[in-house]
Amino acid sequence: MTDSIMSKAATMEIPINSNGDTGTLPEDDSLEQDLQQVMVSGPNLNETSIVSGGYGGTAEGIIPTSSIKDLRMKARRSSVPTSSSAICHITSQSHEHQGSNMHHSSSSSSMSADDATRGVAVEKIESVKKWGMNTYKCTKQMISERFGRGSRTVDLELEAQIEVLRDTKRKYQNVLRLARALTNHFYNMVQTQHALGDTFADLSQKSPELRDEFGYNAETQKLLCKNGETLLGAINFFVSSINTLVNKTMEDTLMTIKMYENARLEFDAYRADLEELSMGPRDAVTMARIDAAQQQYQVHKEKYERLRSDVTIKLKFLEENKVKVMHKQLLLFHNAISAYFAGNQQQLEQTLKQFNIKLKPPGADKPSWLEEQ
């Protein structure tokens, strides 16, 4: 029965109209009943086969329908994903890519920071190592010189000039101390004269019988007070100039001398180290150490010679500056003191003009009422 129905289905024609649409098949009740019977009692479609060579052909091109369904399901799943699953898949890939980039950048930045920190640490260690070695050599050289077992480089002429400078500074410091003491005492005397003049002026108003006498003394004390303030201006200028010469100009030269003495000690220390190595065996290790010591010796020799030249030049200029400054200041001090004690007010004022000294007006040192608030 099945064969007869399949033969009918295979030989049945499908009419097509002029537009390419399929036409309507004529109704055939017997055929419909036969098909329903085949669907109920016929074989399972999942277990049927498709013949590639046409009906009644050989069994070589047979493909199971179950395999075709499996292939179609796989093609549907893998061909075009749904919009939501595709978006999720793309988003997850993007996040994974960004996360990997961020992780890579953070790891690279942390590695660079670690390298920088490690480089700084290595530099500090090397600096401390060099400082320790240099301190050890200099301490050894200092102890050897103190106990008479080591030799030191000496420039007799320069050492004599340095000793003269130190002695000159001590003497000028004593002059500065005495000049400041004179300023303080003279300031107190001027203040006393000012108060005494005010007292004489007050008594001249209250004592009619001694008005003239108190008046003369009041005028004298006020004149002395005025001349004393003028002299104080000259002495203060003298003290300021001596202070600059001693505590700035001489001190700067002495700082350079201190650097020169340290360079001399380092030079002698590395010189002694090179001499000690040169007296030892001449193997490969010792020769390498001798070469390194020779380089260090040359570096410290150049530093020592450069600072020795700087000290020589500064000592020369300091001597010229000292003579120039002290000539002016000693002349000022002599003329001001002589004019004051001679009572020559005009000569005293002329001395201040000669040295361009300007006196502060009375009360200039006092703070204003706004500063006192």
UniProtKB/TrEMBL annotation:
<dbReference type="GO" id="GO:0070273">
    <property type="term" value="F:phosphatidylinositol-4-phosphate binding"/>
</dbReference>
<keyword id="KW-0472">Membrane</keyword>
<dbReference type="InterPro" id="IPR027267">
    <property type="entry name" value="AH/BAR_dom_sf"/>
</dbReference>
<dbReference type="GO" id="GO:0005829">
    <property type="term" value="C:cytosol"/>
</dbReference>
<dbReference type="GO" id="GO:0006886">
    <property type="term" value="P:intracellular protein transport"/>
</dbReference>
<feature type="compositionally biased region" description="Low complexity">
    <location>
        <begin position="100"/>
        <end position="112"/>
    </location>
</feature>
<dbReference type="GO" id="GO:0032588">
    <property type="term" value="C:trans-Golgi network membrane"/>
</dbReference>
<feature type="region of interest" description="Disordered">
    <location>
        <begin position="93"/>
        <end position="116"/>
    </location>
</feature>
<keyword id="KW-0333">Golgi apparatus</keyword>
<dbReference type="GO" id="GO:0019904">
    <property type="term" value="F:protein domain specific binding"/>
</dbReference>
<feature type="coiled-coil region">
    <location>
        <begin position="290"/>
        <end position="321"/>
    </location>
</feature>
<protein>
    <submittedName>
        <fullName>Arfaptin-2-like isoform X3</fullName>
    </submittedName>
</protein>
<dbReference type="GO" id="GO:0000139">
    <property type="term" value="C:Golgi membrane"/>
</dbReference>
<dbReference type="GO" id="GO:0034315">
    <property type="term" value="P:regulation of Arp2/3 complex-mediated actin nucleation"/>
</dbReference>
<keyword id="KW-0597">Phosphoprotein</keyword>
<feature type="domain" description="AH">
    <location>
        <begin position="153"/>
        <end position="353"/>
    </location>
</feature>
<feature type="region of interest" description="Disordered">
    <location>
        <begin position="1"/>
        <end position="28"/>
    </location>
</feature>
<keyword id="KW-0175">Coiled coil</keyword>
<dbReference type="InterPro" id="IPR010504">
    <property type="entry name" value="AH_dom"/>
</dbReference>
<dbReference type="InterPro" id="IPR030798">
    <property type="entry name" value="Arfaptin_fam"/>
</dbReference>
<dbReference type="Pfam" id="PF06456">
    <property type="entry name" value="Arfaptin"/>
</dbReference>
